[in-house]
Amino acid sequence: MFDLVIRDATIFDGSGAQPVHGDLGVTDGRIAAIGSQLGAARETVKAGGLALAPGIIDGHTHYDAQITWDPFVDPSPALGVTTAVLGNCGFTIAPCKPEDRDLTMRHLTHVEGMSLDALRAGIKWGFESFPQYLDMLEKQGVGPNVACYAGHSAIRTFVMGRDATERAATDDEIAAMAALVREAMAAGAVGFASSTAEAHNGEGGTPMPSRLADDKELRALVRAMGESGRGLYMLTKGSKTSIPYLEEIAAETRRPVLIAALFHSNTNPSAAFTTLKQVNEARARGRRLVAQTSCCPLSMDFTFKSPYLFESMQAWKPAMAAHGEAELRRIYSDPAWRAAVKAELAERRGRLVFNSEWNKLFVVETAKEETRKLEGATLADLAGQAGKDPLDCILDMALSENLETLFVAQLLHNDDREVGKILADPDIHISLSDAGAHLTFFCDAGFGLHLLGHWSRDLGVLDTAQAVHRLTGQPARLFGIQDRGLLKEGQAADLMLFDSATVARGPKRRAHDLPAGAARLTGSAVGLHGVWINGAQVTDAKGFCADPRSRPGKVLRSFAA
User: Fold this and answer.
1) How much of the chain is in helix, strand and coil states, percent to nearest 5?
2) How far is Cα 518 from Cα 438, in angstroms, rounded to an integer?
3) Do 318 and 365 share a domain, yes or no?
4) How far apart are CA 503 and CA 528, in angstroms?
5) Is the predicted pLDDT of residue 204 greater than 70, yes or no?
6) Do 365 and 456 reside in the same domain of the chain?
7) Which of 252, 152, 256 is nearest to 479 (CA)?
8) What is the residue-averaged pLDDT of the chain?
9) Are 459 and 520 in a shared domain?
10) 228 and 306, same domain (yes or no)
């Protein structure tokens, strides 16, 4: 007798092959049989033709802190994710000495948009070394399966303390860091992650520690990882780590290099395709370079109490220097100040964070009942209807609601035609949810559902079998996850049951449920009927359904070469 049989399903096995119709049986957390009219089971699910696929593998998350207080890393399992890869960009919390904990948390607050109050109240510091961190996760249990990178910034801070953000490392310090990388790989790290991206700054605008690494340090640490004969080097690249440079590292270490983040920009439309061409040319030469992209527009939520979207502008500085809301409101109402902002928006278009794409700026949530009907509208449409300049329109609206109106701007990756060309590349790794980070800015944890709905069903960029493969079998192979990502006998029963006709990510909502009552954006699923992790159901058609005390996931510590 099976523990579970899902009957009458359209089975996508994760390989990219076209689906078959049949039943799937589970015993002891593993797929025991796939066929027709399977025998009796303790639990039976009638799929009625719904799509059954492996669970989504989210390869770019930042749940390193959250998982210590929330083993189910909400909301990912309710959005189809059964395996999460932690520690991306090297922004991990292990290893960490007790005296460096607050500094580490303050860096995370700046670089990954995490609430400092939530981190201070929530993180369970039952570890110091990376192996101890994995041991702690295993002991407390995890909701989804997790794989963890050894993180460059954490390792650098562990060895160099506050100097990690100030200077290059000495030979002895590099040797100490390399030893920590080897220790992490021996303990079960999936690879080594780092960042050289200029946008990655910690407390007070100081560079994150990994950005201070020179060529000698970077090569030494990736070599140390590669000595294990497995693992991949994950990098969020900056200007000093070009694709030819990363090809050298891949050739030298004979390890894959996973490169984030490939985004299309309407104001620099050729850049992403130039990078992708370089990556593919390196692959043709036998180097295992993989570009990582998103299938979601990069967006930011904001109110005009803290409109970071505009704060890179010189004309905005008087507003940033305002003391109190009354002065801020006075500045926002000043016609001369508005004129200066409009002039800079026009003059510097293409070189700012926000580049006057008012048709990509939406009203998310209004503060007054009488303006609820405006939610979901673009500022381009509202300005046109009001006969106003869009800047005047958005400021007038914010002022009328005591600066409490919530807006969202789609900044990158928002041209479906161009983004579709990137997603269609069969070697691109589709991920970049950033789940667990930037919680007040956005929530892309449902990226997989968006790929299946918007990109596959609605636009036809990928068929369903290909889309499933890109979320399951392909990342499993990339990360060396040996027994997941495919539906076949003997594999772990990480499963997702969904309706191809309706699957999508639902609307975002704001919750105040982090430690210390901190706020976050979260989301729900549409058309998702079930998620199982190692055979245990965690999500049904209504959403998350598991006992929060259950821990069906595994800490993954063994990976294929």
Assistant:
1) 40, 25, 40
2) 12
3) yes
4) 6
5) no
6) no
7) 256
8) 95
9) yes
10) no
User: 462 and 518: one domain?
Assistant: yes
Give residue 365's domain range: 300-412
Phi, psi of 408 (to 5 degrees): -135, 135
Residue 89 lies in a domain: yes
pLDDT, residue 205, reads: 63
Examine the domain organization and report whether 110 and 162 are in the same domain: yes
Cβ-proximal residues to 373 (8 Å cutoff; 6+ apart), any chain: none
DSSP 467-522: HHHHHTHHHHHHHT-SS-SS-STTSB--EEEE-TTT-EEEEEEEE--SGGG--EEE
Pair 254, 369 in one domain: no
Q: Note the pTM of the prediction, 2 decimals.
A: 0.89
Whether residues 279 and 311 fall in one domain: no
Q: What is the mean pLDDT of residues 79-86?
A: 98
Cα(473)–Cα(475) distance, rounded to whole angstroms?
6
Return the DSSP state at 457: I
Q: Are strands 298-302 and 257-262 parallel, antiparallel or unpaired?
A: unpaired
Query: What's residue 86's pLDDT?
Result: 98
Q: What is the CATH number of the domain that holds 267?
A: 3.20.20.140
* pLDDT 10s digits, 214-237: 999 999 999 999 999 999 999 999
Quote the pLDDT of residue 510.
Answer: 80
